[in-house]
Write a structure and sequence with these properties.
Helix content is 34%, strand content 23%. By secondary structure, it is an alpha/beta fold. It has a 6-stranded mixed β-sheet with strand order 3-2-4-1-5-6. β5 and β6 form a beta hairpin. α1 crosses α2 and α3 crosses α4. The radius of gyration is 14 Å and the shape is globular. The model has no long low-confidence stretch (mean pLDDT 96).
Length: 155
């Protein structure tokens, strides 16, 4: 069994011409830091996939400052308009290639984070607050996940 953690980035500045360049607000940085501490004490990821968008990268930096990992990859398939089925196929491939990693963290955006949960645990499609984390217990043999819970920052 593996644990897959699906995380939405922290609060970002309002929409602008280049969506991929939106940065975290001060509140978003605090949210990412709070969730980094929560992850450290509950799930401590071994491997991370992160969207190339600035706000997701900044969120991952906050989390990884508290939770150093051996495997950290930027994945262009987990952008807001990405194909969740394709992204999950890629994640499952990485999991099979790296069996030593037990806990995977994916840092991305709405709406793809909700679609990723549904792909991994059919019938579950939660709405994510900023910096929230969905916890999925994943069986790499059957390629099925069980949605366990959602954790959101207090701020």
């Amino acid at each position: 069994m593996k644990t897959i953690l699906i995380m939405r980035h922290g609060e970002a500045v309002p929409m602008q011409a280049k969506d991929e360049m939106r940065a975290l607000t001060q509140k978003g940085q605090a949210q990412a830091n709070e969730m980094g501490w929560w992850l450290k004490s509950h799930y401590a990821p071994d491997a991370v996939l992160v969207s190339p968008y600035l706000r997701a990268q900044q969120t991952a930096e906050q989390v990884l400052a508290l939770n150093p990992v051996e495997f950290n990859e930027t994945c262009k398939d987990i952008i807001p308009s990405g194909d969740a089925a394709f992204a999950v196929d890629y994640l499952e491939t990485l999991i099979s290639l790296h069996p030593q990693y037990k806990t995977w963290l994916v840092v991305a955006h709405m709406p793809i984070v909700s679609y990723l949960v549904d792909q991994l645990s059919p019938g579950k499609m939660p709405i994510f607050n900023t910096a929230a984390v969905a916890v999925i217990e994943y069986d790499e043999v059957t390629h099925r996940g069980c949605f366990l819970k959602m954790q959101a920052p207090s701020k």
